[in-house]
Design goal:
Elements: H1 16-25, E1 30-35, E2 41-52, E3 57-59, H2 95-101, E4 106-108, E5 113-127, H3 131-144, E6 155-160, H4 165-170, E7 174-175, E8 178-181, E9 233-234, E10 237-241, H5 249-256, H6 260-267, E11 285-289, E12 305-307, H7 314-320, H8 325-332, E13 350-352, E14 363-365, E15 384-389, H9 400-403, E16 426-429, H10 444-455, H11 464-476, H12 479-513, E17 520-523, E18 533-536, E19 548-555, E20 560-571, E21 583-587, E22 596-599, E23 603-605, E24 608-610, E25 622-624
Parallel strand pairs: 5-6
Antiparallel strand pairs: 1-2, 2-5, 3-8, 4-5, 4-9, 6-15, 7-15, 8-14, 10-11, 12-13, 16-17, 18-19, 18-23, 19-20, 20-21, 20-22, 24-25
Helix pairs in contact: 7-8, 10-12
Length: about 625
């Protein structure tokens, strides 16, 4: 159950839930933390390798939707996100996006994600007066960092909030377009060309990849299947076969004019110990990046768009730009299927007026931290992705940012808690050496079901179908046979009663022997608090103004809860038979800002019942049964 996100501010600070999510998923994860002399947190920054989980993700600054939601020239006030006072730093010519798209990448979008080893990402940044120095320190670290098979950074990317855009621009970051391509409609098998097999490498549009043929398992250097699974997404690849014994990846990279660390990255999952100096056997097959031809690398001219005014027609627009009317109409029909030369356009409609012969993929703006099954981020908006191009440096260059710090950088060690942690709830149980009571005797129907499970092994699984089958067989059983099972159950009950009497005698004897019996204190295992109604302990640092709270977010690893307060809103009417006359509880309006972050140790679950069973917590009603 979640709260409605319609009224949320897009520039809301990082939530603890998102921070915990990134720290849990990001691999690798590294960065810096700044603390004051007293140990108070002043700032933090974490970095990782850029990874996305959208199969058709593409860096593209020339697409219509690349900057549509943040362009200041759009006349649609509702779609404009940014109204800057000065011109933004934007990759208008598409050169930076083209460089990013040509970098190597590989991964499974349904598992670890598509990894871009040439692109680092600033995943988390929070600071009080030291944010600029943290970003500069992180950039310097990336520029001096040695290359490896999993990280060889030439760029650093991030997603910026509205308020942080000028800050990142002052540090040299540039807005870059990112989109996801909608897949074309599936074609029938009959329409496919005979003799043409599907490529084992999934690529986005405008890309191609050479498929590697499966190799016979004649040696460890020739894996049984070198072809990538269909679910794997990769940059364009080709294969290279070692011609002479002793060739190294460094030599192969030089011959093919590619980066050796790209070869290591693409093959490290096949050849676990491969490194630039590895001496390879003759016949070893390697994946290597497929370089784009000079013709393909030529800059595309940016597509120009005209924002129509009310009742403008394509014929009028074509005349103003000296373009053939029908060619203009055909070029825009992919986006506007019913467009005609005389169609009257609404104000704000965008019409392509250049590159009319260029095919435009149907795309959506990219939302970072979204996954394959997400059509869009719930309640979110397209990510404002910014990129900084690194200048790789050697160890001989001075580290100006690090040397300018007033204190040296130390290895991180967890600080002591500034406040003592609350004691967990305790429960009292009997001594574990006390005599155990006998097991409860079975009823006639349970004895019958166990008998059938012994006769028919297929009924042993605890499924709904088996439970239904057993119940039907019991109902169809003749009364005479039921009476037999009832007699067996009565005998079992007699045995249980005698055993329980003997247990009571043994328990009293054990109590008399334990003159100084001490109860055992154990810590109660904390159950999940997600979507539960709780009340706060008396020693909770805040939140005593409300009787009950609803747990919107619960992170067990951090023992952290995000709570929404609840207030009584009348009583339930006669339409709710079991809750008639009882108080009705709702969530406090989110706009009032009363939500609370606190430790789960302060939360005490209470019995409650959700009445409407809706997914929107703001529309739900609760019957709190605390003390009922």
């Amino acid at each position: 159950m979640r709260r409605s996100s319609a009224d949320r501010c897009p520039s809301k600070p990082l939530s603890l839930e998102y921070i915990a999510d990134r720290l849990d998923v990001d691999d690798p994860a590294f960065g810096y933390i700044v603390r004051s002399k007293e140990g108070m947190l002043q700032g933090f920054i974490t970095l990782t390798t850029f990874t996305n989980w959208q199969k058709t993700f593409r860096w593209d600054s020339l697409h219509e939707l690349a900057f549509y939601y943040d362009d200041s020239d759009s006349e649609d006030e509702e779609t404009v996100r940014h109204r800057p006072k000065k011109e933004r730093r934007v990759d208008r010519d598409g050169s930076l996006a083209r460089e990013l798209q040509e970098t190597v990448r590989l991964g499974d979008p349904y598992n670890e994600g598509i990894v871009w080893p040439r692109i680092a990402e600033i995943s988390l940044l929070g600071a009080l007066g030291c944010g600029r120095k943290l970003v500069q320190l992180a950039i310097e670290q990336l520029e001096f960092q040695k290359a490896s098979g999993s990280a060889n950074y030439d760029y650093v990317a991030l997603q910026a909030t509205d308020n942080s855009i000028p800050f990142y621009e002052s540090l040299g970051f540039v807005r870059v377009g990112a989109v996801t391509v909608q897949p074309p409609p599936k074609q029938d098998d009959s329409s496919s060309q005979p003799g043409r097999s599907e490529s084992p490498v999934s690529t986005t549009s405008e890309e191609s990849a050479a498929s590697a043929e499966p190799l016979p398992p004649s040696s460890p250097e020739k894996p049984e299947v070198l072809a990538l699974p269909f679910d794997i997404v990769s940059s364009p690849l080709t294969t290279y076969e070692v011609q002479r014994p002793g060739e190294t990846p460094t030599y192969i990279a030089k011959v093919n004019d590619v980066n050796v660390w790209d070869i290591i990255f693409l093959n490290k999952d096949i050849y676990k110990e491969i490194c630039p100096s590895s001496r390879l056997m003759k016949g070893t097959i390697l994946h290597i990046p497929l370089k784009a031809s000079p013709q393909e690398s030529k800059n595309k001219s940016p597509t120009k768009w005209f924002v129509a005014k009310e009742n403008d027609t394509p014929r009028k627009i074509a005349k103003n730009f000296s373009l053939p009317c029908m060619k203009l109409v055909e070029a825009n029909r992919n986006r506007l299927p019913e467009l005609q030369a005389t169609s009257r356009l609404k104000a704000g409609t965008r019409i392509k007026v250049s590159n009319l012969d260029q095919h435009d993929d149907v795309c959506e703006p990219y939302c970072h931290w979204s996954f394959p099954d997400d059509s869009s981020v719930e309640g979110g908006e397209p990510s404002y992705v910014m990129v900084y191009k690194l200048e790789r440096k050697t160890a001989r260059c001075p580290r100006e940012v690090r040397n300018s710090l007033a204190v040296p950088i130390k290895q991180y060690s967890p600080p002591k808690l500034l406040l003592p942690a609350p004691e967990p709830q305790k429960t009292i149980i009997q001594h574990p050496d006390a005599p155990k009571p006998p097991a409860e005797s079975l009823k006639a129907v349970d004895i019958f079901k166990n008998h059938l499970r012994d006769l028919y092994p297929e009924l042993q699984a605890t499924t709904k179908a088996n439970a239904k089958e057993l119940a039907e067989r019991w109902n169809k059983l003749p009364q005479a046979k039921k009476d037999r099972y009832n007699m067996v159950a009565m005998e079992a009950r007699k045995h249980y009663d005698r055993a329980y009497e003997q247990h009571l005698i043994e328990y009293k004897m054990w109590e008399s022997e334990c003159s100084t019996r001490q109860p055992v204190v154990i810590f109660e295992k904390e159950a999940s608090l997600f979507n539960k109604v709780v009340k706060l302990r008396d020693d909770a640092p805040e939140g005593q103004e409300y009787s009950y709270w609803f747990v919107l977010t619960y992170i067990p690893d951090l023992k952290w809860c995000h709570l929404a307060p609840m207030v009584q809103d009348g009583v339930f009417g006669p339409e709710r038979k079991t809750s008639n006359g009882r108080p009705r509880w709702r969530l406090v309006d989110e706009k009032l800002g009363k939500e609370l972050d606190t430790s789960s140790m302060y939360c005490i679950p209470v019995r409650s019942k959700a009445i409407k069973k809706t997914a929107d917590a703001d529309k739900e009603e609760w019957d709190v049964l605390d003390g009922a």
